[in-house]
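Worked Example 4.2. Read the sequence first, then its structure tokens.
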Amino acid sequence: MNMSDLPAAPPPRLTPHPAEWDGLWDRSALRRLLSMAGPEAATEILHHLRADLQSACEGLSAAVTLRDGTGLHRTAHVLIALCGTVGATALCQLAQTLHRMVEGIPVAPDAALPPASALIGGVALLCAALAEEDGAA
């Protein structure tokens, strides 16, 4: 058997699989924030977090479609703050990587598209997880 006959290794998965999510998101950071806010404010905070994350996801998708480096940079900056606030450190780090990749670059390079796409998927998972937290808050 020749080495060229072997299948290529699958690309690394950038978006966490739902079964791995607990290891990538420290829910205690969000729960501390919500407990400080109190039950009424916690519901409102979760609502705004999901809305802001969804808006960032939409902005990221549009920027990927347009290959808009400035849009990717701006949205990654927002996601660094949002993901960091809720304890989604893996997504925060991915947003930081994307932010650095497109800093000062008006047209997104090819290399920025996979992390941006992974961030879109990860933020969608985070939004779903936040919806579950709404019931726990």
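Now turn to a second chain, presented in exactly the same format:
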Amino acid sequence: MTYNELLTATWEAAKAKEPSAELYECTAPQGVAYVHSVFRGTNNTTLMCNAYADGKVTDVASFDSPWCEDVVIHMPVKLTLEEANDLLSEAGYKADWYQVVLRNPLGPTNSNPEYIYSYHDGDNIAVDTFTKEVTPL
């Protein structure tokens, strides 16, 4: 399964638990063996769920605490991870990142959701899901 298929699986699981669930972020390692997704639940709760490449989806865990790091991302995401990977490569960045997270950080400025790639040398590169701009962070 692709990253975006796994993301959709976690979103469907979260919506089955809480129909008003909204995506905050989704993280995967290089190779996308799994994704870990975080959602806004009702009454300031946080929902978390994993989906694995073999199709297994974990139970949705609910935490009685708000997630205060991101702005909600409206599904479906307009740019797939594969498309973002192509943009990253076209911009001259290597594909040796170790982790990617789809998120819309709370600040310091307003932005669009981004795929943020983390590299072992400490670099982070973002691909904007709307403008398709590739920028170092």
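Notes for the reader: Residues 3-17 form the longest helix (15 residues). The helical segments are 3-17, 81-90.
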